């Protein structure tokens, strides 16, 4: 079975914990995987782990916040473009700040990581999907993008902007057979959240986010889902 038959996915942010979990799920489902991120050492380690699990994996070094870097990375992989049917943007940044205190530099950095980088990847890859007349573009959002969250001013705003951007992108490319899906989890069981002292039982396992991505990508052609929201389990009730 060749790459075209199995499917070919690019996971942006694939060197991170969530990106690796998504790549592992998609790879064990039979897809060929390319990881894209900035840190080549971490990328190589992630690819080695995937290959050890039986996944056909490779990597490309690129900075998703730099459009020229992203365009060059996808150009390098152009020979695989006919088989490319799934792109997952799992890179991003989270930090705490307050609405009236966040510095301009923080706003710029958060928007670059959580919004501009997605637009850069879309600009690089969606033309390939349009020419093929099929494919799915998935980005990882957050339930923080659905409303006000004290202490997460720039993060929540960047994720809300991402929802709006993806809705616009979908409206522009749907007639070309390209699907756009936002997967918005509550707090994920990442190293950062676990260090916060939050009860791990109220955190969403990375494997469940990966399962949501796989579900969106596995829908029959012509069927799409705009957003998948994953809510955290509630704290245990006190007697």
Give keywords.
44% helix; alpha/beta; Rossmann fold; 239 residues
Explained architecture:
By secondary structure, the chain is of the alpha/beta class. It has one domain: 3-Layer(aba) Sandwich (Rossmann fold). It has eight helices and seven strands. It has a seven-stranded parallel β-sheet, with helices on both faces.
Quick structural overview:
The chain is α/β, with parallel strands linked by helices and 239 residues long. The protein is built from 8 helices and 7 strands, in the order αβαβαβαβαβαβααβ. Helix 5 (104-132) packs parallel to helix 6.
CATH superfamily (homologous) name: NAD(P)-binding Rossmann-like Domain
SSE succession: HEHEHEHEHEHEHHE
Using the coordinates above, name the CATH class. Answer: Alpha Beta
The fold-level CATH name is Rossmann fold
How many structural domains? 1
Number of discrete helical segments = 8
Order of adjacent strands in the largest pleated sheet: 3-2-1-4-5-6-7
Query: What is the number of E strands?
Result: 7
Report the radius of gyration as a whole number of Å.
Answer: 17 Å
**Helicity range:** 40-55%
State mean pLDDT (0 to 100 scale).
89
Please state roughly what percent of the residues sit in beta strands, choosing from under 5%, 5-15%, 15-25%, 25-35%, 35-45% or over 45%. 15-25%
Q: How does CATH name the architecture?
A: 3-Layer(aba) Sandwich
Q: List unreliable stretches of 5+ residues.
A: none
Largest sheet: 7 strands, parallel
Q: What is the CA-CA span between the terminal residues?
A: 56 Å
Instruction: Look at the helices and sheets and give the structural class.
Output: alpha/beta
């Amino acid at each position: 079975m060749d790459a075209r038959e199995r499917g070919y996915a690019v996971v942006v942010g694939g060197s991170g914990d969530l990106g690796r979990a998504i790549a592992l799920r998609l790879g064990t489902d039979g897809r060929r995987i390319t990881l894209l991120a900035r840190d080549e050492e971490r990328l190589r380690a992630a690819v080695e782990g995937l290959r050890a699990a039986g996944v056909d994996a490779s990597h490309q070094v690129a900075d998703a916040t730099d459009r020229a870097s992203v365009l060059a990375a996808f150009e390098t992989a152009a020979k695989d473009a006919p088989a490319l049917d799934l792109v997952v943007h799992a890179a991003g940044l989270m930090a705490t700040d307050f609405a009236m205190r966040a510095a301009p530099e923080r706003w710029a950095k958060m928007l670059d990581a959580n919004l501009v980088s997605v637009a850069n990847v879309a600009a690089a890859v969606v033309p390939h999907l349009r020419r093929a007349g099929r494919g799915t573009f998935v980005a990882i959002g957050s339930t923080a993008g659905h409303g006000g969250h004290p202490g997460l001013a720039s993060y929540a705003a960047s994720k809300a902007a991402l929802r709006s951007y993806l809705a616009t992108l979908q409206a522009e490319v749907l007639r070309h057979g390209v699907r756009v899906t936002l997967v918005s989890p509550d707090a994920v069981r990442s190293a950062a959240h676990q260090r916060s002292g939050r009860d791990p039982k109220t955190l969403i396992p990375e494997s469940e986010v990966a399962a949501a991505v796989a579900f969106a990508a596995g829908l029959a052609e012509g069927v799409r889902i705009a957003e998948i929201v994953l809510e955290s389990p509630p704290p245990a009730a006190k007697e």
